[in-house]
Structures are given as structure tokens and as C-alpha cells.
């Protein structure tokens, strides 16, 4: 059943991104970045079995943020893509500080949430540190790489190539950095290696599946420019 739920989450994630872009343009994509950053860093604390591999949850939501920066890069330029990366950084730091401050408060006699919050957010500083480093390095690489390929192969028919090359290499960088920093010493070495490999494979699948959506976003942009020129 995990595989079915994973496929459903994949469709919902891409659908939400493309709807946000359809309704609110690049502002919708800027809104999605903190949603993805926060949700992915909560989901990643859950380990699941998927396609016979041990994996962490959150891969779909996090990998979707690369679709967001690629759409921004393709349709609005490198500056807006970098702005989205900065928004993601800020949202992660704000969440870490606010949720860890929430744990300082003494719970009331009728409170039922404290233990769950401690379980979820006590390891958050290490996970957020791992996420910030991995997110910064991989996303900035993705923005740079996508823009480089866009300059070398500017034709629309090559969107799939620059999208997949930039994202797949960036996802590999992200998976290695994040898994090593977040989980080293927490899991046995063989589990850590399995999580790294499975995480990358799943993100690679997400990267391939997002290609039709970036073409759709590109066609909307071209149509909007056509209408503006009339």
C-alpha cells in the first residue's frame, strides 16, 4: 500500500505546484517553497519501506521544490530561482527556532501534545542543519546548472534535458550530504547506505516525472506573453 500512497502523493504534489503557478504565477511558487521545506523536514523523520527499500518520507515534497526552482529559472530567470532558495532557507530556520522554543514551555495538566512535539522536533536542529547545508548546496547547484544548460541549449525542445540533468545531479548531491549529516551514527552503516541510495532513486523518479509539468508551465508562460503582446 505504501507504493500506492507514494504515487498519490506524487500526483498531488505536482498538481498543487502547477495549480499554485496557474492561479498566482511566480508568487504561487514562492508560497510553495516554505510549504515544501517545512513539510519535507517533518516527514523525513518517518522511515518507511518502499519498493523493497528502506527510505525516509519527504522525498516527494522536497524533490518537488526542484521543479519549482526550475520553472522559475525557465520562465522568470535565475534571479527569481535564487530568491526561492533564500525563502526556503529562511522558512527552515524560522520553523526550527519557533518549534524548539515551543518545547521550552511547561505543558498544562490537560496537555496531550507535548510528548509528540518532543518526538518530532527534538531532533530537528540536526535535521534542519543537514537540510540547510544539503538544500543550499544542491539548490544553488541546480539553479546554476539549469541556467548554464539553458544558455547552451536555449530551444524549448531541450527543456527536458536541462531539467533532468540539473535536477538529477543536484539530487545526488542533496541525498549524500543530507543523509550523512542527519543520520550518521543514528542508523547502522548498511542502513545509512540503503537510505542514501533509496532516497536518491526516489528523487530521481520524481525528477523524471516532473518533466511534463515544466513543459506545461512553459506553455502557459508563452501563451501569456503572446496575449500581452497583442
TrEMBL record:
Signal peptide: none annotated. One of its GO terms (molecular function) is transmembrane transporter activity. The chain crosses the membrane at residues 6-24, 29-44, 50-72, 84-105, 125-144, 165-185, 197-217. Pfam families: Vut_1. It comes from Sediminispirochaeta smaragdinae (strain DSM 11293 / JCM 15392 / SEBR 4228) (Spirochaeta smaragdinae). This is Probable queuosine precursor transporter. Belongs to the vitamin uptake transporter (VUT/ECF) (TC 2.A.88) family. Q precursor transporter subfamily. It is a multi-pass membrane protein. Involved in the import of queuosine (Q) precursors, required for Q precursor salvage. Keywords: Cell inner membrane, Cell membrane, Membrane, Transmembrane, Transmembrane helix, Transport. It comes from the Bacteria.
Amino acid at each position: 500500500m505504501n507504493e500506492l500512497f507514494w504515487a498519490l502523493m506524487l500526483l498531488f504534489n505536482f498538481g498543487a505546484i502547477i495549480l499554485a503557478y496557474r492561479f498566482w504565477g511566480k508568487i504561487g511558487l514562492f508560497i510553495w517553497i516554505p510549504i515544501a521545506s517545512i513539510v519535507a523536514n517533518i516527514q523525513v523523520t518517518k522511515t518507511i519501506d518502499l519498493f523493497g527499500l528502506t527510505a525516509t518520507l519527504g522525498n516527494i515534497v522536497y524533490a518537488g521544490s526542484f521543479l519549482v526552482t526550475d520553472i522559475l529559472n525557465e520562465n522568470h530567470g535565475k534571479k527569481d530561482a535564487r530568491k526561492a532558495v533564500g525563502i526556503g532557507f529562511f522558512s527552515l530556520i524560522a520553523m526550527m527556532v519557533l518549534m524548539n522554543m515551543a518545547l521550552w514551555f511547561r505543558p498544562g495538566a490537560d496537555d496531550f501534545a507535548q510528548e509528540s512535539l518532543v518526538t518530532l522536533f527534538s531532533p530537528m536542529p540536526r535535521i534542519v542543519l543537514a537540510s540547510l547545508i544539503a538544500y543550499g548546496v544542491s539548490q544553488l547547484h541546480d539553479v546554476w546548472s539549469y541556467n548554464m544548460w539553458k544558455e547552451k541549449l536555449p530551444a524549448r525542445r531541450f527543456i527536458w534535458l536541462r531539467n533532468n540533468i540539473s535536477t538529477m545531479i543536484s539530487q545526488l548531491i542533496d541525498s549524500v550530504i543530507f543523509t550523512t549529516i542527519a543520520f550518521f551514527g543514528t542508523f547502522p552503516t548498511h542502513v545509512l547506505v540503503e537510505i542514501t541510495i533509496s532516497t536518491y532513486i526516489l528523487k530521481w523518479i520524481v525528477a523524471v516525472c516532473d518533466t511534463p509539468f515544466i513543459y506545461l508551465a512553459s506553455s502557459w508562460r508563452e501563451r501569456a506573453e503572446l496575449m500581452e503582446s497583442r
